[in-house]
Amino acid sequence: MSLDFVDYPDREMLFLSLADRIAGQLAQHLRVNDAASLCVPGGTTPAPLYDYLSGSEIDWPRITVMLNDERWVDGEHLRSNGRLLRRHLLKDKAAAAPYVDLYTGDPAPGDAVPALCEAIAPHLPLTVLLLGMGTDMHTASLFPAASETVLALAPDAPPVMAVTSLKDDPRITLTASALKGAINTHLLITGADKREALERARNLDPTEAPIKAFLGDITVHWAE
Q1: Fewer beta carbons under 10 A from the terminal one: N or C of the chain?
Q2: What are the C-alpha distances in Å from 140 to residues 19, 33, 42, 122?
């Protein structure tokens, strides 16, 4: 197990290089497999990466895309991760990719868990997993302050869990059991504050710094 840290001269080089690397890993997987899967974070940081990746010349109809997590809001809500994904990744050539929408329209995220577990299962292990991280060292919707995080980090957790203990919107998240099995794992962070947070996380327990659970075989991509 090893953590590979790649320091880029600027964000544009990071986004271009990482888009090329993800596309290459997906294409390589498809040479010997019928299908591939790509799991990505929401938020504004990776949007330029998605713009580049959406034009990649790969066999998108064979690549199922899904988010790491989603807020339980309508797909056109400004806080919806799916809204960002549709505007930046699921366009151009990548518009042909099958998409597993984590927001199902059910009254509460817990109501959607059984169907989502069933929908995601055929796409595990994930071919390429891209994670993000907050300065609080959360990743996906695995937060240090969330009571669900201990359960979501357990090896026997279902692949999807509802997160309702936070003060903001209820959420749905993939759990460690789904995320840690990925064939290729990348972490995208920018800025000095997140680099410092990552260094702190390496010395903490995953319940205090959930990103720590994924710092095994991973490539970290950073630019100021």
Answers
A1: N
A2: 20, 27, 9, 20
Helix, strand or coil for residue 12?
helix
Assess contact for 5 and 94: CB atoms under 8 A.
no
DSSP assignment of 40-60:
E--SSTTHHHHHHHTT--S-G
**For residue 2, what pLDDT band results from cuts at 50, 70 and 90?**
confident
* Residues recorded for the chain: 224
SS3 5: strand
C-alpha–C-alpha distance, residues 90 and 56, integer Å: 12
Average pLDDT over residues 149-166: 97
What pTM does this model have? 0.98
Which of 93, 117, 214, 123 is CA-nearest to residue 172? 117
Tokens representing residue 84 in the block: 């960002």
Q: Quick one: pLDDT band at residue 1, thresholds 50, 70, 90?
A: low
Can you tell me the distance from the alpha carbon of 22 to that of 8, in angstroms, rounded to the nearest whole number? Answer: 16
CB atoms closer than 10 angstroms to residue 32: 6
Instruction: Using alpha carbons, list the distances in angstroms from residue 124 to 47, 65, 76.
Output: 24, 12, 28
**C-alpha–C-alpha distance, residues 4 and 220, integer Å:** 6
How far is 58 from 172, CA to CA, in rounded Å?
A: 29
**Could you report the per-residue pLDDT of 59-101, keeping only the tens digit for each?**
999 999 999 999 999 988 989 999 999 999 999 999 999 999 9
**What pLDDT is attached to residue 145?**
82
